[in-house]
Amino acid sequence: xxxxxxxxxxxxxxxxxxxxxxxxxxxxxxxxxxxxxxxxxxxxxxxxxxxxxxxxxxxxxxxxxxxxxxxxxxxxxxxxxxxxxxxxxxxxxxxxxxxxxxxxxxxxxxxxxxxxxxxxxxxxxxxxxxxxxxxxxxxxxxxxxxxxxxxxxxxxxxxxxxxxxxxxxxxxxxxxxxxxxxxxxxxxxxxxxxxxxxxxxxxxxxxxxxxxxxxxxxxxxxxxxxxxxxxxxxxxxxxxxxxxxxxxxxxxxxxxx
Length: 257
Description:
Layout: H1 14-23, H2 25-46, E1 51-61, H3 62-66, H4 72-89, H5 92-102, H6 108-114, E2 115-119, E3 125-132, H7 135-156, E4 160-166, H8 179-204, H9 211-218, E5 237-242, E6 245-250
Antiparallel strand pairs: 1-3, 1-4, 2-3, 5-6
């Protein structure tokens, strides 16, 4: 009918796609090995390893310390102070004092980027992390902060203080990068991209490879098929190459004469 639009549908055979993936399993394995090795090499050779040292401090206020019992409101107040302490820790006044006391060769901005802090499991204890490519530098900066921060808190906030629980120790292992994680990312990317490429190539393939394709796609009767003359496994005539000459023979019989 005039004006009627024709809609073309693409039929996707999941079994056909699975067979295509199975036929090209070698490509998937190769992509996994290449991408996994690339992720390993990138993490091991190209990323500078970083080390992390930390100190633990306990937040309290003068009311809680002087009383014989600590109520839930006192603990909540102490936990709310942790955010304030973190802001004070990263202030220019505190960090410049840390640079001066620790005789550090870095700017305020660089030192600020090396420091992170937060509450430990939603308690009144908070932990300060210092990350550096030198483990000794990370330990020294963390311990210098532990010495400077309590006095600065006493000067700024009335009726509250912090107590050092643990000083930083020399980190023995690097905190980043994780070679296992980068290798896993490479393997995952290899699997995803190789499978996606195989599926796309299979869907875009419009060549007729066998009789089954015609029967399944167009549902037409098959009248005849042209045999593969180079295939010696069938019961047809085939050509056999001997040197530079070609000779024809029939499977299952011989010529006499």
